[in-house]
């Protein structure tokens, strides 16, 4: 509420998650940043101070892949995120099978 009402008391939100929680954190981070940008665009006080607009940061540990290529491009352009993966962790290597963007059998 503080963000949307423009009080400016909070400037940053950090969302974090691990494994399946990191997948949810990815979706939540993208949606929260998009929502806040839309809210700020509609308020003259925020338009005058673009650097004061809220920033949503995501920290994802061992996250599986989420979304298709359009989601990925939008996410990369909109969200400040860090994805921490371990080389031999299978969870972070599993491809998203929720859409037809990947060929081959679903896992």
Largest sheet: 3 strands, parallel
Task: List SSEs in N-to-C order.
Answer: HEHHEHE
Residue stretches low in confidence (pLDDT < 50, at least 5 long) are 100-107
Mean of the pLDDT scores?
76
Level of helix content? 25-40%
SSE class: alpha/beta
Taken from the alpha-carbon principal axes, the silhouette is elongated
Q: What is the CA-CA span between the terminal residues?
A: 40 Å
Strand content: 15-25%
Our count of helices gives 4
- The tally of beta strands, per DSSP, is 3
Spatial strand order of the main sheet: 1-2-3
Radius of gyration: 16 Å
Describe the structure.
By secondary structure, the protein is an alpha/beta fold. The chain is built from four helices and three strands, in the order αβααβαβ. The protein has a three-stranded parallel β-sheet, covered by helices on one side. α4 (about 70-80) links the parallel β2 (about 55-60) and β3 (about 80-85). The longest helix has 22 residues, at about 20-40. It is elongated. The N and C termini lie far apart (about 40 Å).
